[in-house]
Amino acid sequence: MSKRIGMEVAIAAAEAAALCRFDVAAVYPITPQSHVAEHLSDIVADGRIDAEFITVESEHSALSSAIGAAGTGARVVTATSSQGLMYMHEVLPIASAMRLPIVMIIANRAVSGPLNIWNDHTDIMHERDTGWISLFAQNGQEVVDMTIQAFKIGEHRDVMLPVNVNMDGFQLTHMVEPILMPEQEEVDKFLPAYKPYAMVHPDTPVSMGTLAMPEFYAEALKAKDMAMAASRKIIAQVWKDWEKQFGRKYEPIEAHRAEDAEVLMLTMGSMGETAEIAINELRKHGVKAGLLKLKLWRPFPFEELKKLTKNAKVLVVTDRAVSFGGPGGPVCGEVKAALYDEPNRPKIVNYLIGLGGRDLTISDFVDMMKRAAEATKKMPAEAYEYYGVRE
Amino acid sequence: MKALVENFDIFAPRLVDKEEYFCAGHRACQGCGEALAIRQMCKALGKDTVIANATGCMEVISTLYPTTAWKLPWIHVAFPNAAAVGSGVEAGLTALRRKGKIADRYVKTVAIGGDGGTADIGLQALSGAMERGHDMLYVCFDNEAYMNTGIQRSSATPFGASTTTAPAGKASFGNKTWKKNLPEIMVGHNLAYVATACHSYPLDFIEKVKKARKIKGPTYIHCFSVCPTGWRAKSEECIKLGRLAVETGVFPLYEVEKGKYRMTIDPPEKLRPVEDYLKPQGRFRHLTPDQIKIIQDRVILEYKKLQNKIKCSKSWDELAK
Amino acid sequence: MADKKGPETWKEMNPGCMVFRPGSSREYHTGSWRAQKPVWQNEKCIKCGICYIFCPEGCIKEDEEGYFVADLNYCKGCGICAHECWPGAIKMVEED
Fold first, then answer.
1. Which of A56, A304, B319, B321 has its CB surrounded by the most CB atoms within 10 Å?
2. Whole-angstrom Cα distance, residue B46 to residue B273?
3. How many CA atoms lie within 13 A of A203 on its CB side?
4. Which chains are within 8 Å of B by 3+ CB pairs?
5. What is the pLDDT, as a whole number, of residue A62?
6. What confidence tens digit (pLDDT) does each residue in A306-317 have?
7. How far is the C-alpha of A330 from the C-alpha of A322, rounded, in Å?
């Protein structure tokens, strides 16, 4: 039986990775990090699991050595954040192209400049198209659960893709939360030993990371994209297995009072919990409000979104990143693409919120919901708004 | 004729491993010194080896999907990170062997890259990997410019060489900087073994690779690799140019074992003039006698610095006594 | 994990473009690049193996009598063997 404990979420993420009995961890401690790196090294140093910890000299080398280790057939975990993720960027699409199921725990934070170390989703948005499966957690429990699920999803033969688990920097990473920490036997039962597709070893000589000329490159990309598409089914199956064993339900989009909602809000990450309270407040006052919490960023749950928004009049999409000169926030761009062909699609209002750690209260979410109906009258003149920015 | 066989047991080539681990059909240019050096290195390493390759000539010419020239297990990720990938391979093999997930036998991790991938963009990853003490041999195949992308200068390009980004012209004599001394930087990492080598001295190179392979820890070999295409030289003169680099003192062959410097190929008592080495190469053709003199003086100075280290250095074992 | 020569459909591609056939570059014959080919005069050959150790293609092999011969499927005609053969047993001759 899982034990309920109070634990800092970053440390809990490292504990969850250890429950998955990783073979190698390669993490760079700064630029800026969470406590994941140091706690992973604690776990290895204390001999709690039998693994190698590589104290790499950069984030670029963190993922590079993770790829090297995964190439040998090791189960590998790494973690990063913000500038570190940006520095790693070159290697992300290579990890997925090489079809190595590395798990990366990301403490989402703003990107320089100006220099800012607080939370938003700018870092991961730059990595959207690198071919990684992207999960978004809204609380510590989800961070733990998703870290364990990530290995099972990524390692499935129909998938073989790296997975990143996103948790909001500070707002999650540095919070002590009550967490039901699964027991080792439970995780062993859920997550079988990793059977790699290939191993760089003299007994199984393989060339990994070859050059594809134009006549092969497009086929290689389609194969990777189809693996991403195939992962939808596997993710659903893994989440079903999880619910069966641990009783906690996961869906690509978690809906809260959305069924009859006229005004819907969509959030990603920890702000979903604050937004939920705001929705309940609005409901008390008779507003038909509802909430959608996006848990799966890649592959994007197009069908689920269509289903959940078909009765709404207004959809308020919150974004914690900016796409300069683009259609608004990156999440909103995706949502609009998903709903374009729908005959009864809601009006969409896009607020850019919580940038660089800007706090939002419950009343801010209430305010956004109230103003949304008004905003739709003006559209599309103003496609998106920096919420709370001083004019 | 004498110079050709000097320091070289002429029948010794018959003693090397006959297995080809780096196979024909690779797309390297005619007379490629680097491909030859890789072939020789693999013979010294043998089967129980994993290669981590930086992006560069050797990567693109050897593994055009769906084929590979490699018989050794091989992994390539990107340009700047061969040493980091090697670190991961080494850690992976160590963990999996300890946990009984792979055969319980020693497998050597070898990371390789060109001079750009080693001395420039890959220097940080290399320094990190060597400093951390991974059980890994790193071999830099130095052809003194970014040959794969069209002969751009790197920090390993010699003074006076004309490259596409440091071209000789009316107002320029080509590359204005002196070659970075990477082996010395590696010595500064306290490695148990650092060596320079060249494909023109295959037995010396093979010996050094074998020596490095045996050491359980980080080691480094800097292999001077002639690039007839980039140096604008005749392909058949590939071996000769390597030999001239050694005989002129431009690229001395030595090793540093636990801090002790030793010349492994004795150059002629009196170094040949650098002109003998520069002349057959198009990249130096524009140099004036004055400029050649500057190079000559510097080569002699560097050579004396090396001789001084050979004279003065003691091995750590000796010093610990 | 059987590989095919390609071109393959995307479904037939090996995951990650991995190649499981060590040494399969031999399917590609670089011999067509050649303008000149090496010809051995065995009467001058001392069977030292210099040509073998200096061949960038690794395409020079020893025959049953201990003489050396280049596999012309791969020989690119660089001329290193002829240049390095100190007894002068190898000549580069124009391809027909």
1. A56
2. 38
3. 12
4. A, C
5. 98
6. 999 999 999 999
7. 7
Tracing tokens 């920096």 back to the chain, one arrives at: A386
Cα–Cα separations (whole angstroms), residue A365 to A276, A278, A290, B237: 9, 6, 12, 75
- Is B20 touching C (CB cutoff 8 A)? yes
Chain B interface, best mutation among C17, C20, C24, by max B CB count within 10 A: C24
Task: Report ipTM (2 d.p.).
Answer: 0.96
Band of residue B35 on the pLDDT scale cut at 50, 70, 90? very high
Topology of B2-320 in CATH? Rossmann fold (3.40.50)
Q: For residues B180-207, give the mean pLDDT.
A: 97
Task: Single out the residue of C21, A166, A273 nearest to residue B65, CA to CA.
Answer: C21
pLDDT of A381 over the 60 cut: no
CA distance B305 to B249: 12
For residue C28, the distance in angstroms to the closest alpha carbon of chain B comes to: 5
Contact predicate A33/A84, CB 8 Å:
yes
The total domain count for chain C is 1
What's A131-175 look like in SS3?
CCEEEECCCHHHHHHHHHHHHHHHHCCCCCCCEEEEEECCCCCCC
A181, A213, A246 - which closes a domain: A246
In this model, does residue B16 exceed pLDDT 50? yes
A226 reaches C (C-beta below 8 A) = yes
The per-residue pLDDT of chain B, averaged, comes to 95
Domain hosting C65: range is 30-94
Residues B211-247 as b/e (b if ≥16 CB within 10 A, e otherwise) read bbbebeebbbbbbbbbbbbbbebbbbbbbbbbbbbbb
User: What is the pLDDT, as a whole number, of residue A383?
Assistant: 81
Q: Which of A99, A215, A216 sits opposite C16 (nearest CB)?
A: A99
Q: Is the pLDDT of residue B4 over 80?
A: no
Q: How many angstroms away from the CA of A8 is the closest CA of chain C?
A: 37
Question: How many structural domains are present in chain A?
Answer: 2
* C78 — pLDDT class (breaks 50, 70, 90): very high
Do the domain assignments include residue C6? no
Size of interface A-B (CB pairs under 8 A): 178
Collect all residues of chain A within an 8 Å Cβ-Cβ radius of residue B87: 26, 54, 56, 61, 64-65, 68
For residue range A337-346, list pLDDT tens digits in order: 999 999 989 9
Chain A residues with beta carbon closer than 8 angstroms to that of B65: 210-213, 216, 220
Average pLDDT estimate for C16-23 = 97
Q: What is the CATH number of the domain that holds A311?
A: 3.40.50.920
Domain identity same for A309 and A213: no
Asked whether residue A268 falls in the same domain as residue A231, the answer is: no
Q: Do B128 and A58 touch (CB under 8 A)?
A: yes
Of A160, A205, A208, the CB nearest to C22: A205
Q: Residue A47 and residue A25: Cα distance in Å, rounded? A: 14
Contacts of A201 in chain B (CB under 8 A): 50, 73, 93, 102-103, 107
- In this prediction, residues A198-226 reach a mean pLDDT of 97
Domain that residue A291 falls in: 253-386
pLDDT digits (tens, 9 = 90+) for A271-305: 999 999 999 999 999 999 999 999 999 999 999 99
Residue C40, domain CATH = 3.30.70.20
Same structural domain, A300 and A228: no
Q: Is A210 on the interface with C (CB under 8 A)?
A: yes
Decide if B78 and A94 are in contact by the 8 Å CB cutoff: yes
Token pair 């062959």 is found at B253
pLDDT band for A32, please (50, 70, 90 cuts).
Answer: low
Peptide bond into A380 cis (omega under 30): yes
Residues from chain C contacting residue B29 (CB–CB below 8 Å): 76
From A56, A76, A213, residue closest to B84, measured CB to CB = A56
How many beta-carbon contacts under 8 Å exist across B and C? 136
**Looking at CA atoms only, how far is residue B89 from chain A in angstroms?**
5
Please say which residue of A192, A216, A246 terminates a domain: A246
